[in-house]
Write a structure and sequence with these properties.
The complex is a heterodimer of chains A (159) and B (418). Chain A is an alpha+beta fold and 159 residues long. In chain A, 23% of the residues lie in helices and 21% in strands. In chain A, the strands form four sheets. Chain A has a two-stranded antiparallel ribbon with strand order 1-8. A two-stranded antiparallel sheet of chain A has the order 2-3. Chain A starts with a strand and ends in an 8-residue tail after the last helix. Helices cover 24% and strands 29% of the residues of chain B. The chains are: A alpha+beta (159), B alpha/beta (418).
Chain lengths: 159, 418
């Protein structure tokens, strides 16, 4: 059974340990600006919302890539960027309707969540279980998928 | 079923792959007009800077990709289409019968009527062959004049600049990238380029290119204001046009591109069109237009292929969107970035920091956007526009600070209703 990240914003305290863990694990530095998961703060509502790529079936980023630099990891289901092939054209960054693939000007490549090869550092670091890594069927991804389907131009969902 | 796909760019390749997926028994032939494996023109600038080799431009780098899918790839140029006998004839004289034909021939560069563009050392930057010729001449310290500072021109400009040439750019419009940037943004891009020692002339045109044996370049480029600029190399990037000339006499209707309906069908039975050559449905206007962008090409290719295979898919229209890196200054544009009648506009600009964000609303729905100097989470602009998300209280918040688009999206999609 493939697993996916489950995010429960109600449990998030805004401690940002997920951002620290992600940037350290992937970029080798404690630098939240390099994190692939972001915690959005809504102070008026008193809410914190961790947010990252849902590894959506539509894979807008992968479909839009002109040089086949994004592929599906068969083991985890994650859509993974090949640094060797990415030319840094950034088309994926405007094609992804979730805004979860971004350009890193330091490397000239795009970055996105790759589920840390099946052991996501953000979920391990989260002290309140706001981020967990569980069976895909349990995560209530349907809401995000519904959003994805609405963005569809016609052909994508049924292809 | 015999499928023939003409054109081996992204639209053609995605269509061929989709045909194979949805009709495993069909015969799929992909005809590419250049003597190369199917490749991405978009990647050419990165080949010019050495970021990737030629193989880095290939659309599908895996060895045997097409063979493994039973897609026959032919390198030949299509000379004509004969709907009466349902055949495609190539320049080599070969004839290919089709039951369903897809035209995905892309576009080709426009050569303006300027004397001297037939001199040696004047090139488009369109094909891999062009890129090889430019790479040979655009070496450090050489004088290069680029005609055109549109979207494609700006991308090429960056790779020329990175190669260390002395670069002048001539644009006839009053600003750079006029089709994806407003006056304010265009002026900021021009200033950014000036700071990088690129000599940009807007509202100027090239009147002639002349031999100039005295040098320093071997050519002199004359401008409408009387200026003369030395050039070893002239790169012509003054626009592209849908490649449809070979269809003359077929009865296939061509306007700005090949006219298609919402099933990507042309006006002749069993012939479809996709990608840069097709005038397809536009999400924002509901009309039909040539987009000439990668995401639209891929959507067209997939939609056309499914309909060719008998799966009824109506195309909802694609959103025009662009992202451009002009020597390090990144700009994006989406949909109706120039606004709609009766709509509202939110702008925040910091010229010194080269940051600009502009949102266009129709009621409380986002319909277009421009950004300059930011890259993070810009995809949500597409999501918000294409979902026609009702922004509710976020409309006013975005009017006050348009930079909060990601906050708006996360709040509306993840918090509301939880």
């Amino acid at each position: 059974m493939q697993k996916s990240l489950h995010i429960d914003p109600g449990k998030c305290t805004g401690c940002l340990q997920c951002e620290m863990a992600c940037s350290y694990d992937n970029e080798g530095a404690f630098n939240p600006s390099k994190s692939r998961i972001k915690v959005f703060a809504f102070h008026d509502e008193g809410r914190f919302v961790p947010y990252t790529c849902t590894q959506c079936d539509e894979a807008w980023c992968m479909q839009a890539c002109p040089v086949d630099a994004i592929s599906v990891d068969a083991a985890t289901g994650a859509k993974v960027v090949s640094d060797a092939r990415c030319v840094g054209c950034k088309v994926c960054t405007i094609a992804c309707p979730f805004g979860t693939i971004n350009y890193n000007a330091d490397t000239g490549k795009v970055v996105k969540c790759d589920l840390c090869e099946g052991d996501p550092a953000c979920a391990t670091a989260c002290p309140t279980d706001a981020i967990t890594f569980i069976d895909a069927n349990w995560t209530g991804l349907e809401r995000m998928r519904a959003w994805a389907a609405k963005t569809d131009s016609g052909a994508q969902a049924s292809a | 079923m015999q499928y023939v796909v003409v054109g081996a760019g992204p639209a053609g390749v995605v269509a061929a792959e989709t045909l194979r997926k949805v009709d495993p028994a069909g015969a799929v032939t992909l005809i590419g007009g250049e003597p190369e494996p199917p490749y991405s023109r978009m990647a050419i600038p990165y080949m010019l800077t050495g970021k990737v080799g030629e193989d880095g431009t290939h659309l599908r780098p895996a060895a045997g990709h097409y063979d493994a899918r039973g897609i026959t790839v032919i390198n030949d140029r299509v000379a004509r289409v004969d709907p009466a006998t349902k055949t495609v004839v190539t320049e080599s004289g070969a004839s290919h019968a089709y039951d369903r034909l897809l035209l995905a021939t892309g576009s080709h560069p426009v050569r303006p009527p300027v004397p001297g563009l037939d001199l040696p050392g004047v090139h488009h930057c369109w094909t891999l062959a062009d890129a090889r010729a430019i790479a040979e001449k655009a070496t450090e310290g050489r004088h290069v004049v680029q005609m055109g500072a549109g979207f494609i021109g700006c991308i090429i400009m960056e790779s020329l600049w990175e190669r260390g040439v002395k670069l002048s750019v001539i644009e006839t419009a009053d600003r750079m990238v006029p089709r994806m940037m407003d006056t304010r943004g265009g002026a900021m891009i021009k200033q950014w380029c000036a700071n990088k020692d690129i000599d940009v002339h807007t509202s100027a045109s090239v009147t002639a290119v002349e031999p100039n044996p005295a040098g320093p370049g071997d050519k002199l480029v004359r401008l409408s204001d009387g200026t003369g600029i030395d050039a070893d190399l002239v790169v012509v990037a003054t626009g592209v046009h849908a490649y449809t000339e070979f269809l003359d006499g077929t009865g296939i209707q061509v306007d700005r591109g090949i006219v298609v309906d919402d099933h990507m069908r042309t006006t002749v039975p069993d012939i479809y069109a996709a990608g840069d050559c097709a005038q397809g449905r536009d999400f924002s206007t509901g009309g039909y237009d040539v987009h000439a962008i990668q995401p639209t090409a891929v959507e067209h290719g997939r939609t056309a292929a499914m309909n060719m295979a008998g799966i009824d898919v109506a195309y909802q229209g694609s959103l025009i969107m662009n992202v451009l890196d002009t020597v390090g200054l990144i700009t994006c544009s989406f949909g109706r970035w120039d606004g709609v009648p009766g709509g509202d506009t939110a702008r925040v600009v910091d010229e010194g920091a080269y940051r600009y964000m502009c949102l266009q609303f129709d009621g409380d729905v986002l319909v277009g956007a421009l950004s300059l100097g930011r890259t993070d989470h810009m995809g949500v602009v597409r999501g918000l526009i294409q979902n026609r998300t009702r922004l509710g209280p976020w409309k006013q918040r975005l009017m006050e600070d348009p930079n909060r688009v990601m906050d708006a999206y996360v709040s509306l999609s993840q918090v509301a209703g939880t």
